[in-house]
Amino acid sequence: SYELTQSPSVSVSPGQTASITCSGYKLGNKYTSWYQQKPGQSPLMIIYQDNKRPSGIPERFSGSSSGNTGTLTISGTQAMDEADYYCQTWDSSTVVFGGGTKLTVL
Amino acid sequence: QLQVQESGPGLVKPSETLSLTCTVSGDSISRSVYYWGWIRQPPGKGLEWIGSIYYSGSIYYNPSLKSRVTISVDTSKNQLSLKLSSVTAADTAVYYCARHNLGGTYYFDYWGQGTLVTVPS
Fold this sequence. Notes:
The structure holds two protein chains of two kinds.
Chain A lengths: L4 E2 L2 E4 L5 E6 L9 E5 L6 E4 L13 E6 L2 E6 L8 E9 L2 E4 L3 E5 L1
Parallel strand pairs in A: 2-10
Antiparallel strand pairs in A: 1-3, 3-7, 4-5, 4-8, 6-7, 8-9, 8-10
Chain B lengths: L2 E5 L10 E8 L9 E7 L6 E6 L5 E3 L7 E6 L4 E6 L8 E8 L7 E4 L3 E3 L4
Antiparallel strand pairs in B: 1-2, 2-7, 3-4, 3-8, 4-5, 6-7, 8-9, 8-10
């Protein structure tokens, strides 16, 4: 079965750029979505179709995908961005989620 | 504004069947071009997709849960339901309902608040 791999944790200083990666076989040939989840809240879609932002999502969130890796980039990271982030794709008629990355803003 | 709300018992005994309902308001399931999905999250762990259904009855299931899962839709009530049989403590999780775009981009854009279901060990 298809798998998506994320690093368990990433740390970033306020104002710096955070990069969260998601690895999967030929992921660049599929569409990747990204979700932000804060404690006690439901997941919130922040990127879809690799690099598109839904209405209301700040421009500091961006996405890209190539080869076997999808990347979520947060530019000018703010304290409010501290959360868990999950990547997701569709393969062989199934939804696949990555294991999640905890972003800590130090 | 689209709203999604899960409901159901918060406690289910081992070996019994978990039953949840998702009520959609602000959009008609039968007019929608979207699928509707169930996702769960065990305490402190990641997201696991359970399955997704279209109002016409087309369904996709997570292969690892397929033998125990039934998802159905009631267009007259604008609801979908989830049944998970033979539950164990491993099925303890927050269960989410979400709108699922399967039109080529495959994302979940509207999520309910989730409902915690506990199966005691």
